[in-house]
Specification:
The structure is a homotetramer of 277-residue chains. The first copy, chain A, is of the alpha/beta class and 277 residues long. The first copy, chain A, has one domain: Aldolase class I (TIM Barrel, Alpha-Beta Barrel). In chain A, 37% of the residues lie in helices and 14% in strands. Chain A is built from 9 helices and 10 strands. An 8-stranded parallel beta barrel of chain A has the order 3-4-5-6-7-8-9-10, surrounded by 7 helices. A two-stranded antiparallel sheet of chain A has the order 1-2. The longest helix of chain A is centred in the last third of the chain and has 17 residues. Chains in contact: A-B, A-C, A-D, B-C, B-D, C-D. Chains B and C meet through helix 6, helix 8 and helix 9 of B and helix 6, helix 8 and helix 9 of C.
């Protein structure tokens, strides 16, 4: 790979610490981003946020505009979901990150959220990358399900070129021939990205595995490989979730994940700040 | 695969012949869609259109808004390209199809073009699918580079549910572990789609192979497998093209492709209408 | 790809017509190799051979040593199957090809069969390639399920270097992320191989699709792309087959395939010799 | 996945600790297997063994029969290599594991080595699996480069059914569309295997990444995901190696890997026994 293809994102451009609502990503401390797949109701979101915060998460995630394969599946609450995210984020002191699905949604998402997520299905969508990059908000860019590392870096370059200074990359598993796990977490890719780019890299073990019982082990692997943090789906009652029921953690599982992650973090010279209860 | 997941697109909903600017796709006659990867200039486009028409093509393709992996690559002429497409299409009597990259572009593209293309990078982008479906224009939907057949059919269902009656599917090769060819044309997928959906299916041998010398053989394979037509990149001077220089055919190669395709078409009970010169 | 990596197999080494029991592969005429997945009994094999011959097949295939994923699945009749192949082949005038699974089996298989098949699971197994190459028998080399074209050519080179002059390559579909079809027939790969190597290339539409209803369309695609022949699984009663029940053709389907193939063959300047009944 | 397909390997059959030359795999302590890709000379192997032992490795690896894609590449020293392995293993007190490429080699390999490796290219080769299983030696079974987890477990079942009680699984990276790394280490697969089977699971970060600078991070990820050990390529002078020069670690890098692994091991409740120097 020729780093001259992405001069703004390249490693020799330095090391970037991205700040999302006061929380730093890419510094010595790891970040835990957690929350439900979809925002479903105020009660659900508040419960998710409180348990995320209790587990040590410092950023809240949740989908308001949901990209779904079937047009008959739940598509998210839309702007109502954004408003709930903002309200619950303010109430719990957690900055929020959520996805924008099209350029025209970017200003609205930027108004409510502290960071804009570009989802895996959209990593190749230049107009959306540009709109996010021009918005002034930090951008969490997920790797496409079959995007090469170079394509991910060129997508990041597109955002940076559009004016953003704050891009976080997210490895979320790639599509392979084996469907036992939903995707395959590319830990070698995480390690490679840390050498190729100045941008922080987080991992999404939820989409990478698609199976609740494997999420924590994949999370530990990502941290061991050098990831700067995690974005994890958790829900007060996963079995009642309107999307991704199989891969969302319970509050207890999330707390357990955080405890185990914090031990591995120390072993690799990082730290996951733990809540003082 | 459970066809009840896509009731509007399913086979038992009948057989659909889609009309683009008076040209039927999905009937007994095959359709040849040809033209340059990118609209570069009026002269280039006119030359491409004339040679396409001479070869038997009845629809002109050309990109005005180009989805590119690198933000530093040529991004297309934009609306100027759309205007050139319309003018050259009218001049040569060829309806035109071109890509829209975001929902907000759909009305503009629909104004200039006879059909809207949804590109491979965008097959999963629900807002764009919906906007195209609601536009009233026919839609040419390309399979995502790592989309399953079911995901392609659900994307078509999204367009149909948004109000369109006219969707053409396009198999353009899928991403595999072997990079000798740019992608792998899924001829079994073409045959399967013809059994799974009422919608016409065309093939793009240019992106499927990425190598000029292999385009015609892949085109013949697609027709033999049951495709209803082809969309082929051709350029007056491929080596001078501003994008996809390696895979665009010369006028002579396109004419040769059409001649060979017409023979295979007859062998499988179809026909590629040939120009009367 | 650098053809100097496989000097014996390379295109500029000429064009090779391989002879199997008097039947030429790689000349102007296409070859149809047909027969059951597994040899199950004398009656089954004779019925299969007669219907294969009636359809125009000139070589009989059938597995005696079956490579199976599960150790609990039917593993073939072994040497008894070889003897049946030889007897039925002699009776019907059809040369036979069958698989050897390990170097030590090669002499035995060579004694009974007119050509030795190296299966997809074994394409990378150097000792077997060498043993087959040294046997003096023609070798039918199937592409590994995730082997690149270059790896296939290097496997062929290994056989040639071991002393064989008669190697036929077989594209049998590659493994991808989509499991609707068992594999994906790489027609671009067929076209590429014809340009890269002097060796004949046949296609296996049965394993490429894994679905009876798609086999013929895939076969037509392979011929249109330039394949020199086909190897097709057919069984007197597919639903009663002890292996690959879903993809074996009935005698009538095989005859239909042959008829349709012969028309496409003529359209691409080849010929499938038809039986005079 | 239905565990009844592999009753001998299934999880509910218990938990197996495999012993190789007195070293336990699958118990509380992790195992580090290290050594050169190929045995090249007595001096090279002794230097590799001493540095492996100094780093904490308790089993020596090294290839005598090398499976190579090109027939023109170095194929290993053969029986001379086996003898060197035995001699150096005895001298340094390290049991040795090395690959057998065909059934007929199994007795020879079993005579010299403490465990027989089945390589990735051979995971599907039933006769070799059976021969290894019947040999009485422990077997290190590497996952095929595009084998599903279920196929790996069925290959293990084949070995167990042939009589072995001692099988160690090895995840060594799977083939994907991205060639920046040689393969993609499937950490979710490691975590899944630990739940699906009673057999120990080790990881090969060398082949998984193919890049020296990424090997250690991938090794840490594997341990964090639950692997019972590592098999790592290391060479006294990697740049002079006759195979896999890009991915072999220097003695210093191996020692560094071991130190970092031991810290992550403790964080996940395991231990990598460290050498007392």
């Amino acid at each position: 790979m020729n780093a001259s293809a992405f001069p703004l994102a390249a490693r020799d451009a330095g090391t970037t610490v991205v700040e999302i609502g006061g929380v730093e990503i890419g510094g010595p401390a790891l970040v835990l981003i957690a929350g439900p797949c979809s925002v479903e109701s105020e009660d659900q979101l508040r419960a998710a946020a409180l348990s995320a915060r209790a587990a040590g998460a410092t950023i809240l995630r949740g989908g308001a505009f949901k990209p779904r394969t079937s047009p008959y599946a739940f598509q998210g609450l839309g702007e109502e979901g954004l408003a709930l995210l903002r309200a619950v984020g303010d109430e719990t002191g957690l900055p929020v990150v959520t996805e924008a699905l099209e350029p025209a949604q970017v200003p609205l998402v930027a108004e409510y959220a502290d960071a804009i997520q570009i989802g895996s299905r959209n990593m190749h969508v230049t107009p959306l990358l540009r709109a996010a990059g021009a918005s002034g908000s930090p951008v969490l860019l997920k790797r496409g399900m079959s995007a090469t590392l170079e394509e991910l870096l060129l997508a990041a370059e597109t955002i940076l070129l559009a004016g953003s200074e704050n891009v976080v990359l997210c490895e979320r598993g790639i599509r392979t021939f084996d469907s036992y796990t939903r995707n395959c977490l590319d830990v070698g890719g995480i390690a490679a990205l840390k050498r190729l780019t100045r941008l922080p890299v987080v991992a999404d073990p939820s989409h990478a595995t698609g199976r609740r019982e494997l999420v924590t082990d994949a999370a530990l692997a990502a941290i061991a490989a050098g990831a700067d943090g995690l974005i994890v789906e958790a829900h007060p009652e996963p079995e009642a979730a309107r999307s991704d029921a199989d891969q969302q953690l319970t509050p207890q599982e999330l707390a357990d994940l955080a405890g185990r992650v914090s031990r591995v973090a120390l072993a690799v010279g990082r730290e996951l700040p733990q809540v003082v209860s």
